[in-house]
Specification:
IspD/TarI_cytidylyltransf_bact; transferase; about 25% helix; about 160 residues; 4 helices; single chain; Spore Coat Polysaccharide Biosynthesis Protein SpsA, Chain A; Nucleotide-diphossugar_trans; 2-C-methyl-D-erythritol 4-phosphate cytidylyltransferase activity
Length: about 160
């Protein structure tokens, strides 16, 4: 059985995984004193919960946190000291600009000798959505599916 309780066991994730963790939003609809990804949830900020999820996955070789410079040390500084997989990118005006900023830090594999384990899988995750499970993420990665997470569910779209 796989981690989701299904009868079939998918192949393991063999490619390196780069995570783009989006934490650049302002959360204006929350009307809080800070962006919603920095609000407390059971003793941790929402973004810390999302980051911890990916830090616990050995297949993740890089975590690109897209966040304004003014929040980096206060909310992510201690993690950077403990884990060298973490790098920062600047957010853009729109979500798509922030994703592009993160993608620019994913290593280029075009000059390498190619095989089925050489491609880097990229997972884009909104840090204000901390309730997706590692099992759901791994299932998406194993199937080379696009991962879109929102609260406690993920929708899958096949890679054609």
């Amino acid at each position: 059985m796989d981690e989701l309780g299904n009868g079939l066991v998918p192949p393991p994730v063999r490619q390196p995984v780069s995570v783009i963790l989006l934490a650049g939003g302002v959360g204006s609809r929350m009307r809080a004193d800070r962006p919603k990804q920095f609000l407390q949830l059971c003793g941790q900020t929402v973004s810390e919960r999302s980051l911890s999820l990916f830090l616990g996955m050995p297949e993740v070789t890089q975590i690109i946190i897209v966040v304004e410079k003014r929040y980096r040390e206060a909310y992510f500084g201690r993690y950077v000291l403990l884990d060298k997989r973490i790098v920062f990118a600047d957010p853009g005006l729109e979500r798509q600009d922030s994703v592009r900023s993160g993608l620019e830090l994913v290593p280029d594999t075009t000059d390498r000798v190619r095989d089925d384990t050489d491609d880097i899988l990229v997972c884009v995750h909104d840090s204000a959505r901390p309730l997706v499970s590692r099992a759901c993420i791994r299932s998406c990665l194993r199937g080379r599916l696009y991962l879109w997470s929102c609260c406690d569910w993920c929708a899958l779209q096949g890679d054609d």
